[in-house]
Amino acid sequence: MSTAAKTVTAPGTDQITSFTFGELLSSRTVIGQTLKELGETHDNLWVLTPDIGATLVEFRDTYPDRFVDVGLSEQACVGIAAGLANEGNIPVVSGMLPFLSMRALEQVRSDICYPNLPVKIVGTHGGLVGNGGSTHYAVEDLGLMTSLVNMTVTSIGDPLMVGEVLRQSMAMTGPLYIRLAVGKKDKVVYEPGSVQIEIGKGITAREGTDLTLFAHGETVSQALDAAGILAREHGINARVVDMFTLKPIDEDLILRCAEETGRFVVVEDHLTYGGLASQIADVIADRGIRLDGFRRLGIPQVFAGFGEDTELRDKHGYGLQATVDAALAVTA
Amino acid sequence: MAATITRPETDVSELEDLSYELREKLLLLCGEYDGSVHIGGDLSCADILTLLFQYGMHVDPQDLRNPERDRFVLSKGHAAVCMYITMAIRGFFDYREIVDTYGQLGSAYGMHPCKVQLPGVEVSTGSLGHGLPLATGMALHGKRSGMDHRVFTLMGDGETGEGSVWEAALAAHSNNLGNLVAFIDRNRQLMTSFSEERVKLEPYPDKWRAFGWNVIEVDGHDMAALVQAFDSLPAPDSDVPTVVICDTVKGKGVDFMERNLAWHAGSLNDTDLARALASLAHGRKAA
C-alpha cells in the first residue's frame, strides 16, 4: 500500500471530513463517531462501558438513554449487556480487553455466547501495547475468544476499518469481538474504497508470489513494511494478508495462498499459540496442506515487561527485522 | 401495571395448595429420575416460585413474548426443575413431559435452564452470580423505555458470595431501577456447609441497605406473609430496587431433608420417596 500523503474523504464517515492517508488516526475517535452515526439509524443500539471511553462522549451526549457507564464492574457490564440484548437491543461494550476478555470471560461465554446474543465487545490493549505491563496487555484474548461457541472474532489495525466492521455488525445475530491495539494513533492502511471489507474474509493487502505474510491488527503495517524491505533488498515478492477475522477463519484464502505462494509466515501481537498462527495451522492440518515453509512469530510464553510497542516486539522476536528474517528463512 | 396480562386471582389457601402440589410433583420426579436432583434448594424456594408464578407476576403461557409481561430470571439455576414444574402448574409446560424427559438426551428440561432449548424460560442460567446482572440489564431496558413491567430474579443466599452480584447491586441502585425485584432464598446453606459457619453473610439485610436497596424481610414459607410482601412492593416506576429476603429452610417439607447437608442434591429410591411423601402430607395436616 502506498503511504504517500493524500487527503481523502472516508466513505460513510461524514464526520471525519478528511485525513491524510498514511498518517495516523485514532480508532477510538472512529468508534465514537461511528457509534453516534449508528445510534441514529438503530434505535436499539446501546453503548456500555466499565469506566473507559472518553471517545464515547458523543454517543453518551446524543443518546443518554442508551448509554451506561457501570464504573469498574466488568462482569456486571457484560451481564447487563446480555440482559439488554435479551430485550431485543444491540449492546456494544467498550473497554479494555485484558479485563473484558478475562475478568468477564464467563459472562461473555455463558450470558452472551450460550444464548447467541448480538452483543459486540470492542476494546483496546490487544497485544504488547500501551506500556502498561502484563496486567494491561491482552495477549491470550484471541485464544480465549476463538474458543467460544458462536463468537465471531476480529482484530483490526486500520482505524477506518473499525468503523466499517461496526457498521456491518449491526446485521449480525450473534456476538462479535473487536480487538484493537491502543487505538489512539493507528496507521490508515487502506485507501478508503480500495479494498473490500467483509467480516469472515481476509484482505490481501499486498500481492506476492514467493510467500505469504499473515497478520492482523497492528502487525499488518509491520508486515507491509517487511514486504517492502524484502522486495527492495532481497528481490523477494511477499504477499501480505490481513486476516482481520480470526473466526470464522477464511479457509479458502489460506488454501489459495498455500497453492500460490507455498510458504507462510504468521506475525501477530498475541501469544504464538492460540492466535492466528494456531488458526491457520489447524486449517493446514485439517486440509492436509503441504507447505514448503511455516513460521509463527508472536509473544513467547513470557510476561513481557515494559517498553514501547516496537521495542517489545523486537525484544520478543516478532518485530520488523524478525519478520524479514523469518521470510528469508522460509524462502531460502 | 401491565394492562394486557392479568394476574391469576389466587388466594392464600389456594396458593398453599399449589405449593403443596409443586413439592409433591418435585418429589415424584426425584423418585422417577435416576440421576441427582437439587431437591434441597428446590424445596426451599418452592413457596417463593409459587408466589411469583401463581400470584404475583403478569405472565401469559399463551403469549410468551408479550412486551408487557413481567420477566423472571432464575439466578439459582440449579432450581430449574422447581421452576419448570411451577411453570407447568401455571400452564407453560406439561408436567408429564418434564418427568418423562428430564435430563435425557434431546430434552429441553435440563439441570440448568436454557432459553434457547426451552422457550418460556427468559434467560439461560446455571453459573451462580449471573442472574442479577442479567436482570439489571433487562430492568434497565424497561426503565429507560418507560415500560411498567417488573423484572424479578431469584437468588440463593449462598450465591451472593459472588462479586458479580454486588457489582450489579451497585449498578441497579445507580440506575434507579425500582422495577427490579430480587428474591433471595435465604436457606442458610451452601452445598457443603451452613452459611453462617463458613461464610458470614450477616448482617445480611444491612448489606443490601448499604448498597441502597429497599429491603423486605419475610418468612419464605408463610404464604400469607409472602403475599403481603409482594403486595407491598414499591411501584415499578419507583427509583429504588427491592430485595425480598426470604427466611427459608433447605429441604422444607420433608423432615429428613430439612437443614440436612446430605440433601443439597440426591435421588429418591421407592422407600425414601414414600417416606418423603408421607412427611410432606404429615406436615400439611399439622399446619
Query: Main beta sheet of chain B, described?
Result: 5 strands, parallel
CATH fold title of chain B: Rossmann fold
- Name the beta content range of chain A: 15-25%
Instruction: Give the H and E element order of chain A.
Output: EEEHEHEHEHHEHEHEEEEHEEHEHEHH
- Amino-to-carboxy terminus distance of chain B: 34 Å
Number of strands of chain A: 16
Just name the CATH architecture of the largest domain in chain A: 3-Layer(aba) Sandwich
Number of strands of chain B: 5
Estimated helix fraction of chain A: 25-40%
Give the structural class of chain A: alpha/beta
Q: Globular, elongated, flat, extended or rod-shaped: what is the shape of chain A?
A: globular
The appropriate CATH architecture of chain B is: 3-Layer(aba) Sandwich
Protein name (chain A): Transketolase
Domain Transketolase-like pyrimidine-binding (chain A): 25-188
Describe the structure.
The complex is a heterodimer of chains A (332) and B (287). Chain A has helices at residues 27-41, 57-62, 74-86, 97-103, 105-113, 141-146, 159-169, 219-234, 251-261, 276-287, 309-315, 320-331; strands at 7-8, 19-20, 24-25, 45-49, 67-69, 90-96, 120-124, 152-155, 176-179, 186-187, 203-206, 211-215, 238-242, 245-247, 263-271, 293-299. Chain A has 332 residues and is of the alpha/beta class. Chain A contains twelve helices and 16 strands. Residues 1-18 of chain A have low confidence and may be disordered. In chain A, the strands form four sheets. In chain A, strands 5-4-6-7-9-8-14 form a seven-stranded mixed beta sheet, with helices on both faces. Chain A has a five-stranded mixed beta sheet with strand order 11-13-12-15-16. Chain A has a two-stranded antiparallel ribbon with strand order 1-2. The longest helix of chain A has 16 residues, at 219-234. The two termini of chain A are 25 Å apart. In chain A, 38% of the residues lie in helices and 21% in strands. Chain B has 287 residues and is of the alpha/beta class. Chain B has one domain (12-286): Thiamin diphosphate (ThDP)-binding fold, Pyr/PP domains (Rossmann fold, 3-Layer(aba) Sandwich). Helix content of chain B is 42%, strand content 10%. Chain B is built from ten helices and five strands. Chain B has helices at residues 12-32, 39-56, 80-90, 95-101, 131-144, 163-174, 195-198, 204-210, 223-231, 270-286, and strands at residues 71-74, 151-156, 180-186, 214-219, 242-247. In chain B, strands 1-2-3-5-4 form a five-stranded parallel beta sheet, with helices on both faces. In chain B, α6 (163-174) links the parallel β2 and β3 (180-186). In chain B, α1 (12-32) runs parallel beside α4 (95-101). The longest helix of chain B has 21 residues, at 12-32. The model of chain B has no long low-confidence stretch (mean pLDDT 96). Chain A: InterPro entries: PDH/Transketolase, THDP-binding, Transketo_C/PFOR_II, Transketolase-like_Pyr-bd, Transketolase_C. Chain A: It comes from Citricoccus zhacaiensis. Chain A: This is Transketolase. Chain A: Residues 25-188 form the Transketolase-like pyrimidine-binding domain.
